[in-house]
Design goal:
Length: 130
C-alpha cells in the first residue's frame, strides 16, 4: 500500500478509472457511489484516512471525492446526473500511465495521453467482482 494520504488518493484515482473501464467492458453502469466504494475497497483507508471528520465522513473519502475533480479537469472523467462516465482519453490514461507514480505525475502536470496509445481492449476474462 502507498505511504501517504496523497499517495493513497492518487492510487484510488487510478483505481476509479480502472473500475470505470471495467464497467465499459462488462456493460455495467455504475453510479458515483459504487465507483468510489469499489476504489476504497481495492485501496483501503489507512487508520489516519479512516478517521471521521466532523461531518461523519472518513478523511480518505473526502480526499478522494475532492480529488476526482482532477480527473474531470484532465478530460478523463465526465460527471453527470446519471453517473460518471470515463472518456476514451481516461481509458487510454490507464494504459499510458500504468503505475500510480506515473499516473499522479501526469495528472498533476497536465500531461496529455500520448496520441499513439490505444484504448484498452477488454481482457478475455473480466476481473471478478468483489
Amino acid at each position: 500500500m502507498a505511504k501517504s494520504t496523497a499517495d493513497n488518493t492518487n492510487l484510488r484515482l487510478k483505481t476509479v478509472l480502472n473500475v470505470l473501464t471495467e464497467g465499459v467492458w462488462s456493460g455495467d453502469t455504475l453510479n458515483a457511489g459504487e465507483v468510489l466504494a469499489e476504489a476504497t475497497a481495492r485501496v483501503p483507508f489507512s487508520d489516519h484516512e479512516a478517521a471521521l471528520l466532523t461531518g461523519g465522513i472518513p478523511r480518505g473519502h473526502k480526499a478522494l471525492t475532492s480529488a476526482t475533480a482532477k480527473l474531470v479537469k484532465a478530460g478523463w472523467l465526465v460527471k453527470g446526473r446519471s453517473g460518471w462516465t470515463i472518456t476514451e482519453d481516461g481509458m487510454r490514461a490507464t494504459v499510458a500511465f500504468p503505475d500510480a507514480a506515473s499516473f499522479a505525475a501526469a495528472l498533476d502536470a497536465g500531461t496529455p495521453v500520448p496520441a499513439d496509445v490505444a484504448v484498452p481492449a477488454a481482457p478475455a476474462v473480466l476481473p471478478a467482482k468483489a
